[in-house]
Amino acid sequence: MNMPNEEQPNVTNNGQEVKPEQAGNAEPNPEKQDGGKDYDKLTSELEKLKNRIGKEQHEKHVANDRIKELQAELDKYKQEQVDKDPEKKQDETAK
């Protein structure tokens, strides 16, 4: 309950106190200020950034897939070398 003699501060949506003389000095909404040009520009920039991030993430996934393929090839090659080494040793001892 508020007491009638208590003075309530003006509060904005972000929780900061605004005195009545400051209330009219708030920054205007960019969308309303110049017909939405700033809003359109920001939306355009946001879309460009989203596209760039998506492209970079795709490239990252492709690179990771390629790394996995090359690692599998390397492991296969190493296993072939290990398999060949005992045969070489056996051939040499048989001579």
Q: Mind telling me the C-alpha Rg? A: 34 Å
Tally of extended strands?
2
Question: What structural class do you assign from the helix and strand content?
Answer: mainly alpha
Which band does the percent of strand residues land in? under 5%
The largest sheet, given as strand count, sense and whether it forms a barrel, is:
2 strands, antiparallel
Oligomer: single chain
**Mean pLDDT level:** 75
Protein architecture, described:
The structure is a single chain. With 95 residues, the chain is mainly alpha-helical. The protein has a domain of 66 residues. The chain is built from three helices and two strands, in the order ββααα. Strand 1 and strand 2 form a beta hairpin. It is rod-shaped and about 85 Å long.
In short:
With 95 residues, this protein is mostly helical. It has 3 helices and 2 strands. The protein is 69% helix and 4% strand.
Layout of strands and helices, then pairs:
Elements: E1 10-11, E2 17-18, H1 20-23, H2 30-33, H3 37-94
Antiparallel strand pairs: 1-2
From the structure above, extract its key features.
95 residues; rod-shaped; 3 helices; mainly alpha; two-stranded antiparallel sheet
